[in-house]
């Protein structure tokens, strides 16, 4: 909406232009009328629309043609004043003033015109019969007002309509010749309807109508008022109301009716609430709200944003298969002016057996967009109506800006949920296979991917110590001579080489020594295509010796040439390294099967505790504070200060490296650790059985 309105009054001499302005200001007819009134500014708190209004007079006696042209170019609305008792002044409207104004304004930005018939107190008849053909002939004429400066008839209404013609113009909304909404208006209102249709059933039920009414006008409709609205639509349209809800056709009909009855402000209020400007385009302020992102910080979606996106997914997943078919994706993005996701998205996130984007893949793609290009994510959320549905000031409320990575390193903990892993390697070393395997696609499935549908990104979830995190893999194109800051800025680095190609490890070694040897970014060497025969690499050191020399983890074998389910262990380890770059221990990659078995036992015991305790608690139907049921006893046990201290001490030992490196490399140490973990699991289960037996 405009910040101010500039009204220009033109017309033949002696028609009463100056008298109209002075009567408005003084609220009485002036005894003496000057040749021209000075420019008057009406404060915003006085005007009905709360917008400052400038009223400019024109006098042929005091102003030149050049000054008139300048005023026409500056005006937002022009009132052509004529005298109802002077036929010559009426004829001049079409023979002189309208052609003059048309010639002096751009075709793409026409100024609305208002015809003002002054001196209505001098005649008993109306001039509307003469004026109506003129209004029908010229589309720029918004309305005609007959008034009298002498007895103050319709003076306030005149300037109100002038304001309204600027703030709520008819031109962008309605075509009077065809008596229907313009295509751009229909497109905007259709998007508003789809955003407001929260269950995507094609109708606005009473709850959705009330939410829409409250969103746009800050007040709900009474039940009887809702019925009255629907009855009006029923009387005029056969398919405007369905299942006691308003259809899209009925919604558009209501706005057509508002405009035809002169209530343009109703439609404009709705359009502006949903982010549209005077040209029926979504404003830049709506789509791209200001958000400050300090250096070394990343952007993530917060909990409310994920809840909103989940509701959008559920709204369009009509067959409830937890995946979006191509038709469902198209339906979801109908509120967008373009299709934001290309075919590469299906090779960036997880899909089902049919190649459709799963629920997890859907959220992953949104997470990826927010991480890489937060402005685009804000734009997409704007199209979906996040700030309106969740009643937020802007889409920026959906974004969390993480704290500086240096602070995370100092505190040795992070609140981030998305971690980036850049995958580097020579051509043909298996980088793309490593990315696609993260999405669960084996070599056979990868070969079916079209070249133009391939993606340099892959994102999915991993679980680190029971916490769900997103790992973003980015395949960096092999160009040793130039790696950009984006290629180097990440949380963990994967250096991939082909064990069957003797020339691939050299690239990894050179990249590491050139860019990462002095970096705090953890690095992992991946020995890809481990199902093939390993050959000697053409480098001074073998991959194992190179890793040992630079204190890196040994090369991790990897292959996607299998028919079995692909393991995600390597990706979990990468995420863990990204979360704890200083505290991560190389011994993690060397854990014996006994330790892994003990860890699984602990997980099973914990899950059994929770599952059985909850069932027992539900069966006893007692309060959570009873301290008698199995559930409460387990909760009290878990809350013991002793257990918390043990947990804290263990965490410090593992992540602050209080253990000697010699111990970490000693197989006896890991055997003791595995035995200890197994004993803990058995004792925990025995304690649970004892508690259950007491009940």
From TrEMBL:
The gene is RHOT1. This is Mitochondrial Rho GTPase. GO terms for biological process: mitochondrion organization. GO terms for molecular function: calcium ion binding; GTP binding; GTPase activity. It is a single-pass type IV membrane protein. InterPro entries: EF-hand-dom_pair (IPR011992), EF_Hand_1_Ca_BS (IPR018247), EF_hand_assoc_1 (IPR013566), EF_hand_assoc_2 (IPR013567), EF_hand_dom (IPR002048), Miro (IPR021181), Miro-EF-hand_domain (IPR052266), MIRO_dom (IPR020860). Residues 304-339 form the EF-hand domain. Keywords: Calcium, GTP-binding, Hydrolase, Membrane, Metal-binding, Mitochondrion, Mitochondrion outer membrane, Nucleotide-binding, Repeat, Transmembrane, Transmembrane helix. Residues 2-168, 416-580 form the Miro domain. Atypical mitochondrial nucleoside-triphosphatase (NTPase) involved in mitochondrial trafficking. Probably involved in control of anterograde transport of mitochondria and their subcellular distribution. Can hydrolyze GTP, ATP and UTP.
